[in-house]
Amino acid sequence: MRPGSDKGSGFPLHIMNNKYLIGRLIMVKIFPYAAAFLFASAVAVFAHDSKDDKVTVVYDQPLPNVPGKSIKGILVEYAPGGSSPAHTHAKSAFIYATVLEGAITSQVNGGPVVVYHAGDNFSEFPGDHHAVSENASKTEPARLLAVFVVDTNETELTTYEE
């Protein structure tokens, strides 16, 4: 740890103790990567498409400090009134999802049906059964970003029911 820095972060204490500077640091250093993550169509691979939803892998990176694990960003876009079939995810998958646009109706493991709006987020755990995943609107599109932490060797992230 450098003298005058905080817990090995390498940042001087006057930056670590100033919320404005921390916010600025996040915007300048992290935001460009997050934006690239969301809109990295150059690495897009279509994992599932139907008339109701479009699923695109926008990010796929092994975690260097967690051998055998990767982080994958999945953009799910629903047409108005669109939905995904009931499904489960890879047994190793922990998922953190954020609604980017519109509203998403969701039901996991027979729990309550919940409507998540733009800016809301939720998690799914390994083995969860996603019975309902649909656009809550019949007139507006909806988008969500699902971030998976999953075994690197997993090739099927989602198994749809027939």
TrEMBL record:
Cross-referenced Pfam families: Cupin_2
Segments forming domain Cupin type-2: 75-148
Gene3D superfamilies noted in UniProt: Jelly Rolls
InterPro entries attached to this UniProt entry: Cupin_2, RmlC-like_jellyroll, RmlC_Cupin_sf
Transmembrane segments: 21-47
Record keywords, A-Z: Membrane, Transmembrane, Transmembrane helix
UniProt name for this protein: Cupin type-2 domain-containing protein
Naturally occurring in which organism (per UniProt): Brucella intermedia M86
